[in-house]
C-alpha cells in the first residue's frame, strides 16, 4: 500500500501543474491527523478542528476530513494527491506547500511545577545545569539545553500518533516528578500543562538569549498553483482573526504579537498588534 501511495504521489507531482485551479467547491476537505491534540483529532476536539469548523461555516460548505498520521510523507500522501485541499496548521516557509498569511505566532515554552525552584527565562541559564529536562528530539531547544548542562530526557519527534503522543508524555513526566521541567512547542505546552493535577506553570521563552529559533508563525497550507484558494483563505483569516485568536486562547496557546512580544490572553481576542 505504501508503494502504491508513493507512485500515486509521483504521478500527482508530475501532472499537478497542468490541472486548472478549482474555483468552485462543494465541500471543505481538510488534511489532518486523527489523534494529534491539541491540534486535531477525529472527535473534533482540537483547536485546528474548531478553526476548520469556523472556516467551513464562513464558506457555507460541509466539512470533510482526510485522516493520516502527521509523519514523513503526510503532505505527499494527502494534499499532493488531491485527496484534500488545506492543512490548517503549517509553519511559515514550509517548502512542501504554499503558505497563506500567518494566523498566529507562538513560541517554545518551559513547563514546570508551579512550586519549582527553577528561575529560568533563557535556555543558557545556569540554573538548568544538572536539571533533568524533557525535550522532543531534533527540536530547536535541544542544543542550547545540552550546552547549558541540562540532563536531557528525549522524546521522539516522528511517531505514529495512533500509538503514542511523546509531547504529552513529556508533560505528564513533569507532573509525575520523573523530570523537573520540559521545553516544548507553546501550543502543546499550554494545552497539556493545564490538564495536569495540579496544573503546571508555562513560561513562554520570549526572553531567550541563545541563538535557537524558538518562535514560529503558523499559516494554512495549500497546493502550489492555487492562488485563488490561497486568497480565499487569506480573506477568511483577515476577517475572522479575532475569533481565531479566541479559539487559540481557549486552548492555552501562548501568542506573540508582530514584534515578538507576549500577548495578554485577555486582550488577544480583540486582535493582535499588526504594526
TrEMBL record:
| Domain Solute-binding protein family 3/N-terminal residues, every copy | 27-255
Superkingdom of this entry's organism? Bacteria
Q: Which SMART domains match?
A: PBPb (SM00062)
Gene3D superfamilies under this entry?
Periplasmic binding protein-like II
Keywords on this record? Signal
Family listed = Belongs to the bacterial solute-binding protein 3 family.
Q: Which NCBIfam families match?
A: ABC_peri_MoxJ_2 (TIGR03871)
Protein name per its UniProtKB record: Amino acid ABC transporter substrate-binding protein (PAAT family)
Record organism: Halomonas ventosae
Amino acid at each position: 500500500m505504501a508503494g502504491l501511495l508513493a507512485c500515486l504521489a509521483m504521478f500527482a507531482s508530475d501532472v499537478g501543474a497542468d490541472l486548472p485551479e478549482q474555483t468552485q467547491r462543494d465541500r471543505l476537505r481538510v488534511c489532518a491527523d486523527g489523534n494529534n491534540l491539541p491540534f486535531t483529532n477525529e472527535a473534533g476536539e482540537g483547536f485546528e478542528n474548531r478553526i476548520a469548523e469556523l472556516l467551513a461555516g464562513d464558506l457555507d460548505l460541509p466539512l470533510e476530513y482526510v485522516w493520516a498520521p502527521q509523519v514523513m510523507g503526510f503532505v505527499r500522501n494527502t494534499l499532493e494527491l488531491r485527496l484534500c485541499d488545506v492543512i490548517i496548521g503549517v509553519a511559515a516557509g514550509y517548502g512542501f506547500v504554499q503558505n497563506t498569511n500567518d494566523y498566529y505566532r507562538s513560541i517554545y515554552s518551559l513547563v514546570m511545577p508551579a512550586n519549582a525552584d527553577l528561575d529560568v527565562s533563557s535556555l543558557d541559564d545556569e540554573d538548568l545545569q544538572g536539571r533533568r529536562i524533557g525535550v522532543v528530539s531534533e527540536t530547536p531547544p535541544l542544543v542550547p539545553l545540552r550546552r547549558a548542562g541540562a540532563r536531557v530526557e528525549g522524546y521522539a519527534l516522528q511517531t505514529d500518533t495512533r500509538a503514542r503522543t511523546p509531547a504529552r508524555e513529556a508533560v505528564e513526566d513533569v507532573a509525575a516528578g520523573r523530570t523537573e521541567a520540559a521545553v516544548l512547542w507553546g501550543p502543546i505546552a499550554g494545552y497539556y500543562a493545564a490538564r495536569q493535577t495540579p496544573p503546571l506553570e508555562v513560561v513562554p521563552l520570549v526572553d531567550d538569549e541563545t541563538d535557537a529559533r524558538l518562535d514560529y508563525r503558523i499559516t494554512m497550507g495549500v497546493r502550489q498553483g492555487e492562488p485563488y484558494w490561497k486568497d480565499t483563505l487569506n480573506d477568511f483569516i483577515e476577517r475572522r482573526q479575532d475569533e481565531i485568536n479566541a479559539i487559540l486562547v481557549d486552548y492555552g496557546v501562548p501568542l506573540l504579537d508582530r514584534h515578538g512580544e507576549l500577548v495578554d490572553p485577555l486582550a488577544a481576542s480583540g486582535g493582535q498588534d499588526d504594526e
